[in-house]
Each structure stands twice: as C-alpha cells, then as structure tokens.
Amino acid sequence: MNENLFTPFTIPMMLGIPITTLIIMFPTMLFPTPNQLINNRMITIQQWLTKLTSKQLMNTHNPKGQTWSLMFISLFLFITSTNLLGMLPHSFTPTAQLSMNLGMAIPLWAGTVVMGFRNKTKISLAHLLPLGTPTFLIPMLVMIETISLFIQPLALAVRLTANITAGHLLLHLIGSATLALVNISLFTALITFTILTLLTILEFAVTLIQAYVFTLLVSLYLQDNT
Amino acid sequence: MAKPQIKLATEDQNKAICRAKGKVAINGKLCKQSTFITYIRRGSLAVLEARMNFHREAQGHHAGPSLKSAALLSPGVLQATRIFHTGPPSLASVPPLPEYGEKVHFGLIPEEFFQFLYPETGVTVTYVLRTGLILYLLCKEIYVITPETFSTISTIGLLVYVVKKYGASIGEFADKLNEQKIAQLEEAKQSFIKQIQDAIDLKKSQQALVQKLHYLFDVQRNNIAMALENMMRQREQEHMIGWVEKHEEKETIDKCIAHLKLLAKKAKAQPVLHNKTHESYNWVHKAQFVIPFNHNRVLIVVHRVMIPLSTPLAERKNWNASDCLRELRKAH
C-alpha cells in the first residue's frame, strides 16, 4: 500500500483533482457557532478553552497589539484542529506541507515587521543592534541581526513542518518495526508497541505545543513592533 | 427509555392512502375524485384522516377534501388543521423524539440495525457480523496490515481509553460552567429584586411612622404644659418669698402668723365663700400654645390659670399692722 515512507504526505486526489482545499476547510465544521446563551457541552468547552488561550496569549500586549487577537486565536485553533485530525489513522495533515506553512508564516511575520517599520521606524531599526555592543562589531552585528530577522518566517514554517512530519514518520517507522517483529518475537513486538503508544501520546502533545509555539512567536514579533 | 415503535401501515392507513389516491368512499361506495394526490407522507395521513372525518361529520355525504401536492405543505397543514382534530390522535401522528440516543456498536452502528435483523437472524447477529466482516476484510486483503495498522491501534486505543475514563467528568465540567453562568445572572436578578424590596419596605415603614406622628405631638404638648405649670409654681413661690422678705417686721410677721393660724382653724369650721375666693385670687387667662390653622388663621388654646394675687389683699388695701389685727379680730 505504501511504496515509500513519504506516501502518507502526498496530496490526496479524488478523481485526479487534489482535494487539499476541502481538507483544509473541514476543521471549521468542528467549531459550531454558539447560538444561545447556554449552549451544548461541546460549544461550552470550546468557548472555555478559547477564553483561556486568548487570555494567556494576549494579556502581555498593549491595546494596539490586542487588535490582533482574532487573528491569533483563529491561527491557533486552525493549527490545533488540523494537527489533531491528522493524528487519525490514514488521514492527511495539511500542516505537514511546507508550502502551506510558509503561506501562513510569511504574511504574518511580514505584517508585524511592516507595521513596526511604518509606525515606529526608529525603534524597529534600533532592534537590529543589541544593546551594549562594542563599536567595532557594529557592522557585523547589524548584518547578523538582519539575517536573523529574515530567517524568522522560514524558521516558523520549517519548525512546524518538521515537527509534524517527523512525528508522523516516527509513528510509521516504529509501526513497521512492530510489524516486522511480530513474526520474529512477540515479546519484543509488545515492547515496541509500548514505545509506539508512548510516542502517540507525545505526538498528541506535540500537535498542541507546536500550534501554541507558532502563535506565540508571531505574537512576540508583534510585541516588538507595536 | 422507551424506543419509538415503528409501525407498518395499518388498515385504516391503507384506506386513507386509497382514498387519497383519488377515490373517496361515500357511504361504502368508491367514487372517483377530480384531483389526485400523488405522494403522501406519513405525517400528512393524520391530516387527511382528521379532515375527512370532520367533513364527513359536518357535511354528511359530501365528498372529502382534495389536497394538491400535500408533501410540500404537510407540516404547515398539520399545524393549521389542528383545530379539526376533534377525536383522539391517530396512530399515524409523529411520535415524540427520544431524549437520549440509543446504544451504538463501535460508535457507528446503532442498536436499531441489529433489532431490525433480529427476526431473521436471532441474537447472534452482532457477533457473527463483527467477526465475519473483520475476517473477510483481512482475508481478501481489502484491509491490509501495514505499519499504519499498529499506529492506528495505538491511536484509537488511546482515544477510546481517554474518552471512556474522562468523558463523563468533562461533561460534568461543561455542565458546571453553564450552571455558573446561569447562577451569575440569577444572582444579579435576585440582588436587584432584593434592592427594590428593601426600598418598598422602607417606604412602607416611613408611611406607618407618619400615621403615628400625632402621638409624638400629644406627648410634646403635655411636656410643654407641665413645664409651664412648673414654671408658674416656681415664680409663685419666689414672689411670695420676695414679698415676705420685703416686709420684714418680725413682730407683725409673728402676729400675722398667729392670727393666720387662728383663721385657718376658723376656715376649717366654715366653708370658704365663693366671692372671697374670687377676691383673694386672680383668675387669669393664659394662652397655652398656638397652632397654625387654615393657612392664615391661628388657633389659640387658652388655659385658665389660677395664680395668687400679685399683691396680697393687705397690700392692695394699704393696711398696716393695726389694720391687720382689726381684720383678724373681725373674722374671729
């Protein structure tokens, strides 16, 4: 069924048409709109989690930065739901594609940087030089800081892609190890299966953590530039 | 939890369907009808029956109603024709929805499926179907065992474990959140009601207080009267003492006192005559207090006070000591 190790990451096609868009739009169906004051349990829990996360994320920003709250919460919910749905067997994770993550990271990062340069040009430029550097190191350091600034979106995208992809690959590999060991020695296979279970737990944690990290870093870039 | 029973069409319903299909039974004979009903839903059977019954009762032998395209209108028609439901509700009416879902196998297949198969297969259908299906999929390699299988087992196993263990408590937590929200609003409402109730009680007590205010006025009035009386008595005494001290002739005083004693003895024997009382004392009208009355008038309450003569009889008639003695001898 799987020719090579990376077939789970190929774009799923239905009658030759890539259905990535449909898969990306699917998680929205899992977050229904609250219609009444007192909703059902699912919506109540979602509301509670959203409130908790948004408070945690946005209380360090000034009012100008808090205008980005909706953006950040949407981002967080999207990445979380997509990653968690990808944990189901035989499913496809859009956030494991680098193209998608770059598409998320670059506009957000660029938005914060451009906003910073437009509104507080001097301070933004001053961020390119850390405090207390010796004079003869200044040109070097400015270049290094500029490079690190431009690396930020790449780092964001690649971090998320690599974590999700690596996690899925590991699960697959250890599964294949278990499969191979089942015929040789059942006991070793059971040990490997235990490792697999633990890894699954880790994977679930990773999906949530990575979403949080992504959003947090973007919010950090925003704070620097607000 | 009563499961709603699915009933197949009864004889009455069959009749209704026949009727609806274009033929109306009038007095036992089937007659043609001009319009046909092509599609009848179960929900509208009650409507048809009810309307037909009503019409039959009301109009005797007239033909029943014709419903065109009942399927589109049936929910609205059901509500609109509710007033015609004169008899008890028929079995074809829509049953109420159950409150909780039924048991499901694998979280996908409801119990209803197996109940449906029960008459044909008996009680072993669940087990046979489960085992057989799995074996079939595996043997024919429709479902292939891959490395993914093991990750599937671990993932699904983990999910099932978490849901079974923590599902109920998470549900309770959600219910608690909702209850907290409602309690907050209820608290606000109750505090508001209490505030208003307290204000009402205060106003009522103030009103009651005003009703009883006249007692206070009476007491004050009496107090003032008593104070005035005391004042008058005090002034009387002081004046008498002053007068006696003014005319400090010891012999006359002693003589006067002795003769007064005699007089007193005499007075005890004889009653005091009215005019003498009149003469020896002054009646004075004193205004006790003033009450405003009718905006521009004033009510003066007057009290007749008996005060002793400002000057004793002796002084008034300018008697000296000998005159005193003379009067006393006369009385004697």
UniProtKB/TrEMBL annotation, chain A:
Instruction: Please report the name of this protein according to its UniProt entry.
Output: ATP synthase subunit a
Q: Which family does it belong to?
A: Belongs to the ATPase A chain family.
The record's principal subcellular location, in a coarse class, is mitochondrion
Q: How does it assemble?
A: Component of the ATP synthase complex composed at least of ATP5F1A/subunit alpha, ATP5F1B/subunit beta, ATP5MC1/subunit c (homooctomer), MT-ATP6/subunit a, MT-ATP8/subunit 8, ATP5ME/subunit e, ATP5MF/subunit f, ATP5MG/subunit g, ATP5MK/subunit k, ATP5MJ/subunit j, ATP5F1C/subunit gamma, ATP5F1D/subunit delta, ATP5F1E/subunit epsilon, ATP5PF/subunit F6, ATP5PB/subunit b, ATP5PD/subunit d, ATP5PO/subunit OSCP.
Q: Which reaction does it catalyse?
A: H(+)(in) = H(+)(out)
- Its gene is ATP6
Q: Which organism is it from?
A: Monodon monoceros (Narwhal)
- Where found? Mitochondrion inner membrane
Recorded GO cellular component terms are: mitochondrial inner membrane; proton-transporting ATP synthase complex
Question: Which keywords does this chain's UniProt record carry?
Answer: ATP synthesis, CF(0), Hydrogen ion transport, Ion transport, Membrane, Mitochondrion, Mitochondrion inner membrane, Transmembrane, Transmembrane helix, Transport
Automatic annotation (TrEMBL), chain B:
**UniProtKB keywords:** CF(0), Hydrogen ion transport, Ion transport, Membrane, Mitochondrion, Mitochondrion inner membrane, Transport
Membrane-crossing ranges are: none
Question: Record's superkingdom?
Answer: Eukaryota
What GO CC terms are in its UniProt record? mitochondrial inner membrane; proton-transporting ATP synthase complex
**Mitochondrion as a keyword?**
yes
Subcellular location field: Mitochondrion; Mitochondrion inner membrane
Q: What GO molecular-function term can you cite, just one?
A: proton-transporting ATP synthase activity, rotational mechanism
What's this chain's function? Subunit b, of the mitochondrial membrane ATP synthase complex (F(1)F(0) ATP synthase or Complex V) that produces ATP from ADP in the presence of a proton gradient across the membrane which is generated by electron transport complexes of the respiratory chain. ATP synthase complex consist of a soluble F(1) head domain - the catalytic core - and a membrane F(1) domain - the membrane proton channel. These two domains are linked by a central stalk rotating inside the F(1) region and a stationary peripheral stalk.
* Sequence similarity: Belongs to the eukaryotic ATPase B chain family.
The record's subunit annotation is:
Component of the ATP synthase complex composed at least of ATP5F1A/subunit alpha, ATP5F1B/subunit beta, ATP5MC1/subunit c (homooctomer), MT-ATP6/subunit a, MT-ATP8/subunit 8, ATP5ME/subunit e, ATP5MF/subunit f, ATP5MG/subunit g, ATP5MK/subunit k, ATP5MJ/subunit j, ATP5F1C/subunit gamma, ATP5F1D/subunit delta, ATP5F1E/subunit epsilon, ATP5PF/subunit F6, ATP5PB/subunit b, ATP5PD/subunit d, ATP5PO/subunit OSCP. F-type ATPases have 2 components, CF(1) - the catalytic core - and CF(0) - the membrane proton channel. CF(1) and CF(0) have multiple subunits.
Q: What is this protein called?
A: ATP synthase subunit b
Q: Which organism is it from?
A: Monodon monoceros
